[in-house]
């Protein structure tokens, strides 16, 4: 009887060991899945970081373009103002020459 109990307890222990091994393997599988998920999160973080850098570069480029446009608009406005003044001077000189050439 004692020997039978011993065998039975050994069998139970063996079965428990097998079950624990299965549980350990499942935990290992879950750990591997979590590692894969972590790797995917790292990739997403890297992509977001690149996107953030691209967004910063884009905003900086927009600022630079606005400054360039403002500068060119100022230059064009000054050019048109100077052209307008020059045309007025020419008109004034033409009028004066016409008055001088008219017989009194």
TrEMBL record:
Protein name, entry field: Uncharacterized protein
Q: Please tell me the species this chain comes from.
A: Salinibacillus xinjiangensis
User: Taxonomic classification, please?
Assistant: Bacteria, Bacillati, Bacillota, Bacilli, Bacillales
